[in-house]
Sequence to fold (365 residues):
Amino acid sequence: IFFSAMPPQMTTLNGQTFDGMSAREVYEAQCERFGCKCNSQMLKTLPTEPDVFDSLEIDLSMNMVGTKGLLPVLEVIRISPRLRKFSVKENYLDNAACNQLVQALKDHPSISHLDVSHNPISWTGGMSLLELVDLNPRIKRVDVEGTHIKPDIIDVLARRIEQNQKGHKGGKKPKPINSNVCVRLRCLKALFSEIHRKENHAGRKIHKKNIIKGWKENKRLQGQEDQLGQSDTFWAELQLCCHPDSNDLITWEAFLLISMCEDVSYNPQDVENLREEFKRWDPDGNGYIDLLEMRQMMKELSGGREPSDNEVRSFLKRYDAEGNNTTNWDDFLLMMYEWQQGAPMVGSFCRVADTTLTPTKKYHL
Fold:
């Protein structure tokens, strides 16, 4: 670990003040807080001088930190404002650890290089890393060799990192490509597809028990791990909400809405009604609502008011999961449901003072 000393300062974390403490003492306190043993290598490398939290690089490669042991390390990183590189190569970290990394590094002011190579991380961890490089444009290198992340996700990650690298030229920072809604939608689509391939049921259906995986995955991606411990009754009711068929199979639409939306009252007929509404806005039948069609849809839904370019862009940022400036069926379904629940349909579009946004039809999903 490489350090750069700085003048004494007031350092606060989770409401606790650490001024006068060393980085090692902070780490020991956080290990006690999370109920895990201190890593011996971490103890050896952390400085003992008070008020020195300016690590330039933390390298814990091949150190068997583990997912739980990572938590106190990340708390030290949060108060290390000049950190440039963090390596946890070959540390038996899982997908949950990737989500922890997102929460710790998404607003970090200096981090530029993250090494998570040779860890048992799969597509979920890959999606978390995609979210991280979207949220923090300072990150210009992520090492993922030797993980279980699929090549297509690695390719997307490489393109996002390249955008971050280009965005820093001339002092400019790239804007995040997609909102958290889009990240979660992409992640759930990948999870559903993976389960479907394994179960190999006819049609686009999976067993109802998998809704638990989808619901938990959505909560993890929202940073709400504290809600994962639910009762058996809750999980049983969640499965019933999906309207499983006689073979206990559920559709993609049920999986999406129950996983991502709060307090959903799912009805297959309502989904079919929305599907017909989608077809109305997709007159050429190509499976997408393009920019022109989208603008007309927004105009009708707002009672004739012409949407501004910023409002259309706001919609795309929130709901265009594929990033191709169009809206497909999945985007449309989630958007219409969230709108009915009072969430912003197109960013600020339904919140403008001079517009009362009312749908042409009422759906109760």
The first helix runs from residue 23 to 34.
